[in-house]
Amino acid sequence: MSAYESSDPIETKFRNLMKTSAGAVLVVIAVFALYLVRTDNPQIADPMWAPYVTASLLYDGDPFLDEYAHWIEHQDYFAVIKADDRLISFFPMGVPILAVLPSLILDIVLPQLQGTTLQEFLLTAPPNDPTVKLIQLISASLIVALSAGVIYLISREYLPPAYALVVVAVYAFGTSAYSTASRAMWQHGPSMLMVSISLLLLIKAQRRPDLIRWVALPLAAAYIMRPTNVISVVIVTLYVLLRYRKYFVHYALLGLSLAIPFIFLNMSLYDNWLPPYYSANRLHLSPTFLEALLGNLISPSRGLLIFSPIFLFLPVGIAIRIIRKKWMSLDWTILIILVLHWLTISSFPHWWAGHSFGPRFFTDVLPYAIYFLISVLEEIHAPDQCLRIRGALGATFAILAVVSIAIHSRGVASAATLGWNSVPLNVDKQPSRLWDWTDVQFLRGTGDDLLAVSPSHINVATDAAPEKQEFYLDTGLMTDGPVDVTMRFPNRVSPTEQTAWLFELDPLPGGGQIGTLRESLIGIGNLRLFIEIDATDMTEEAILRAIELVATQNGRGNNPRQETQIITVSITPEQSDEIVRPHDIAIHCIPTTSGELYALFGAGWYDEETAGDSSWRWAASPANFYVWTDARQTAALEIVPSSIYVPGTSDGLGREGVLRVTGPGGETTLVLQTGDPARFDMPLQPGWNTLTFELEAGHFRPTDLIPGHYDARDLSFSIDALSLSGQCAPSVSQP
After folding, report:
1. What is the pLDDT of residue 75?
2. Model-level pTM?
């Protein structure tokens, strides 16, 4: 029943009530259906075991997960604890309890679709199974859709149907209700449902005070769903005590009807009044409190006002209620809850809510925040308001609503946005990323980058055993869709046995390997590649070379996207992130210019060799050479060959040969003569540029030509020196 219709006759009121109720049902159906349009990027993280707990409740009558120990062990006991030597989820049981009804429906449907019951299926399916993820998503979507129906009822207390639907659209699709709560069985969805029901009863109790007693039930349930709702419990209880003292005893008794079973259950399971998850020491005033206060509002990758800019209207809604003299004690109650919730989540050391999308910790109080937005729409709808003001308010509200919906739609549709949490670095270990405006979470996947690899430099320390040192590369997607990966490992660098099986490996001239991943990268997780580096007989400050990673994503038509990344490898006396330039590569900077220019050898090149005062470096064909620049430019490359393979000679060597150099600007042909510099200009793109050197004659093995010769390498040509001239700071000596 709408406030503006309160003077209607009883019969009309009843009809309107039925219409409003029917509208709420249609809202639930519509939101639920729209939530299920995208099911390709579900989340499992914290709610991983929720479906399994629900199944245990249904079939065993207890919350224990012992029958799923094989899956729990596989997940390293994530989010699982032991209670009396029995396995149980670390997270509140309110969520799986609320999921019992949709799970019962699934248990009817699954035998028809899968030929098995829910319990039998979960015994054979791990948490990351697509069907298990879908079960989570369906249950979560239904719960959040129900809360959207309640929000519609709340809105209809103040607004006509069309405006109420606007509120529902903002709530259901322009907030974390969509991008987080509907994607998995987080605590947040059930919490929002209970909070929204509580809020509806609080609003209705202003005209029907007897309804206030019933607020205790959803409010107590909200606490069982999520412990931070203790703020709502305390503040609303004080509100009821001061404003509705006549009904307080009934209110308290109804609250205790849920609280007492909850306590008894905890005592039987944990020998404590509260579960471990509810421990107060999980929240404390951390050194990052002030940062968190700002971050929860305006962090580019976690800020409420960044991800849902529609809430910029919150202070406007508050101001309207004050100016219009509509501000009441209930408004104070809601505002205090919002502020205290903000302070509470900011006290958590991981205030950014771990690996999630946007302001997840604000999700529980979204119904309260939406309440103040209703006042803005009241003002837009008010007939006594200036038409120009109404138009400006309406247009701005519409723009911010559309932007909010677009942002959270990306969180639903894009796996890359969730991958942001771990790529290129784990946000839990590098929280400074939360303030990086150049890499905003909801924009991840919209740029040109395909992959991120960490680290970008590997340092082999001489204080460790030189032979077969092992390192790992974390490789993660920066885009949506499958990405093919090819890697060129130079001599002395190779994938370990635990990684090699992932690749189709082929040998390269020069002793390296080229490997193509057997399966395209897809999804949100990192791929950890283990490599080993043989530094035997390498001296201090000797240079290894670089690993080339080529990522390819097929686009529309015949124009695939491609990027090259270089992982540099060097050896130094001490652990250092410094990349040392090989001393047989000379960099000449054009005077009065700035920038960076450096180069490294890749697959196909051998170690530098010396004899007396002379030094040289052999290459096979093809041999890769990598140049870095921070600006588009044309640079000059000069090489001085010392030996050239010429077929038909007794030792394989001659004075002249043809060298093809392929780079970003195409192919260049050089006529090489030993001892004479060969120079050419090459266009460079910002970032890494790959140049491939290939002698027209190919390469030879001295052992094939000279009986008893020790050298079985593929040799094509050698150089005495290599220099690069271009735009860079004169002081540049290494990257």
Report:
1. 87
2. 0.86
